[in-house]
Amino acid sequence: MKAWVYGEYGGVDVLKFDENVSVPEVKEDQVLIKVVAAALNPVDAKRRQGKFKATDSPLPTVPGYDVAGVVVKVGSQVKEFKEGDEVYGDVNEKALDGPKQFGSLAEYTAVEEKLLALKPKNLDFVQAASLPLAIETAYEGLERTGFSAGKSILVLNGSGGVGSLVIQLAKQVFGASKVVATSGTRNLELLKILGADLAIDYTKENFEDLPEKFDVVYDAIGQCDKAVKVVNEGGAVVVLTGAVTPPGFRFVVTSNGAVLKKLNPYLESGKVKPVIDPKGPFPFSQVAEAFSYIETNRASGKYCSYRLIFGNRFPSLVLSIAKHCIISKVDRGISVFFFFFFFIERVLA
C-alpha cells in the first residue's frame, strides 16, 4: 500500500513516501480500515522528532492518529462492526505509550474495535476525521474535573481545536450554567456561536481581572499561573500545555470509542459541530509540507486549528460540509491543534 513513513527520528526530511508498504495485519480484536480522511496533529510531529521515543513503537513508523474510513476486513473477535461500515476514531489508545507502528497516513490502517465508532450520519469523512483526538481530549478533561450541570467554566483558547469543543460539550452535554471563553478579536463571534455566554478578547482584556470565579478553568493555551487565580475554592484547572500550577493538573487522553458513541447523537443533531477553516488544501503528496507548517507555528509558541479540505477538487463535498459544521477563520495566535485532511482514497487511487 501507499503510505508516508520515517525510519529514523528527526526533521521533516526523514519523511518518505513509500508505495510498497505492507498492509498491516488484522488482529482478532481489530478491523482493517480503508482510509478516506486522516488528521495530522502536533503530537505526530513530536513523535517524529523522538520526543517520546523511549515509549514509542519500533521504527519504521507510519504516522497519524485520527482517521475516518470504511471497514474492509474484521477480526474474528469483532462483534460491533462489519465490512462496509463507515467509522472514525483515534487509532492509538495511548498517545505517548506505545502508539501504533502503522498509523492513519496510509491507504489502510488496522484499529482495535474498542477505539472506533460509526461515523455520524450527517458528517462526511473529513469532518469525522477532525474530531477524535480533540473531542476525546475535551470530554475527558471535563470528566476528570467532575464537571456537571449547573457549574461554570472558563475556557482559555476557546476557538482552538480542543477549546471549541469544550465550549460545546460543557453547554450541550454537561449542562453548564455559564460558559466564558477567550479568543482573539476576530473570533469573538465564533465563541458566541459555539455557545459561550461571554466572549473575552484576550488582546484587550485580562481574564484574571474578571469579578467572578469559576468552578472549572480549561486551559488550552498555557496560562495555568493565571488560570488558578480565577478558579473557585475546591475547583479544578485542566492544563493541556505549559507549566502546571496547583490545583491545575495535566493528563494525556485515552482514546475510547465509547466516548465517540456517546457523543454521536449530539453531533448528528447538530448540537455539537466540528469547526472547519477552509484554509488552502494540503494534498496527500504534501504531507512533509504539512508537518513543516505545523512546526513553524509551534516554534513561535502558537498552534493552529485549521481543518483543511480539498474544496477546489470536490465542490459538492464543500457544500455538504457547510450544512453540518461551523466554518471559521481561526486565529493562529490562540489555537491548540492543527489538523490536515487527506482524501487518501481518491488521491491515491
TrEMBL record:
SMART domains cross-referenced by the UniProt entry: PKS_ER
Family the UniProt entry places it in: Belongs to the zinc-containing alcohol dehydrogenase family. Quinone oxidoreductase subfamily.
Molecular function GO labels: oxidoreductase activity, acting on the CH-CH group of donors, NAD or NADP as acceptor; zinc ion binding
Name of this chain's protein: Enoyl reductase (ER) domain-containing protein
Alphabetical keyword list: NAD, Oxidoreductase
Coiled coil ranges: none
Domain Enoyl reductase (ER): 10-302
Entry annotated with the keyword ATP-binding: no
InterPro entries in alphabetical order: ADH-like_N (IPR013154), AOR-like (IPR044626), ER (IPR020843), GroES-like_sf (IPR011032), NAD(P)-bd_dom_sf (IPR036291), Quin_OxRdtase/zeta-crystal_CS (IPR002364)
PANTHER family (alphabetical): NADPH-DEPENDENT ALKENAL/ONE OXIDOREDUCTASE, CHLOROPLASTIC, NADPH-DEPENDENT ALKENAL_ONE OXIDOREDUCTASE, CHLOROPLASTIC
SUPFAM superfamilies: GroES-like (SSF50129), NAD(P)-binding Rossmann-fold domains (SSF51735)
Pfam families assigned: ADH_N, ADH_zinc_N_2
